[in-house]
Amino acid sequence: MTSNQKRILNSLNRRISKFESTELAKEIYADEAFASSIFKKLESGNAKVASNILWSFRSLKRQELPIVHNLCHKILCLIEEFPEEEGILRDGTALLQEIQIPEDLQSKVFDMCFGFLQNSTSSIASKAFLMTVCYRIAESFPELLKELALQIQENIFLQGSTSPGIYTRGNAVLKKINQRLRK
User: Fold this and answer.
1) CA 79 → CA 55, 88, 139, 171, distances in Å?
2) 162: which DSSP letter?
3) Is 75 in contact with 113 (CB distance < 8 Å)?
4) Taking burial as the number of CB atoms within 10 A of a residue's CB, which of 11, 26, 43, 117 is the most buried?
5) Rounded Cα distance, 37 and 100, in Å
6) What is the pLDDT of residue 160?
7) Is 45 helix (H, G, I), strand (E, B) or coil?
8) What is the pLDDT of residues 148-168, one digit of tens each?
9) Cα 159 vs. chain centroid, distance in angstroms?
10) What is the pTM of this model?
11) Coil, helix or strand for 127?
């Protein structure tokens, strides 16, 4: 393990900077042994460590994300273990937008994301990511699209006037839903 990797590992118990997050992602992608140790930390670490690691995964390019085996499952486990940890929810759902969700997990992911979308305490960023994840899964299920549209409309009604993120993402997803339902 390099001195830089040791330094990065030691920093995971505090909130890391964007620069450190990007450095961690580069090291994960470049060194398989180091990546393996980070994946173990992700599964056995505390909420702060897990949040930092998920944030660093967001610095990976879409085509690089498959190096994290079972990423969808790992994200689900972390969100279930730390449901009140906003960083895990935000970064986990941001990653779920970017990856292929396995068919056997789609129902679970949709239910979890939809539940957080209904939760008034979820952050604006998380809600924007949640809308996209739910839409990607619901594309194949018109009955879910209608339910999702209603929930997004409620979010826009309740928070759209104070949150450009909810307003913009919500309307963009609603437009896609309406196009899909007209087919």
Assistant:
1) 14, 6, 23, 26
2) T
3) no
4) 117
5) 24
6) 79
7) coil
8) 999 999 999 998 788 899 999
9) 21
10) 0.91
11) helix
Instruction: Report which secondary-structure segment, H or E, holds 120.
Output: none
Structure tokens of 69? 């085996």
pLDDT tens per residue, range 94-145: 999 999 999 999 999 999 999 999 998 889 999 999 999 999 999 988 889 9
Q: Under 8 Å CB-to-CB from 77, ≥6 apart: which residues?
A: 43
- The residue to which tokens 């935000």 are assigned: 90
Torsion sign across C-alpha atoms 134, 140, 145, 146: negative
> Can you count the helices (H) and strands (E) in the chain?
10, 0
Distance of alpha carbon 68 from alpha carbon 39, whole angstroms: 8
Residue 68 is given by DSSP the state S
Q: CA-based diameter of the chain, in Å? A: 57
Token pair for 14:
């505090």
Q: Could you tell me the sign of the dihedral formed by the alpha carbons of 65, 66, 67, 69, in that order?
A: positive
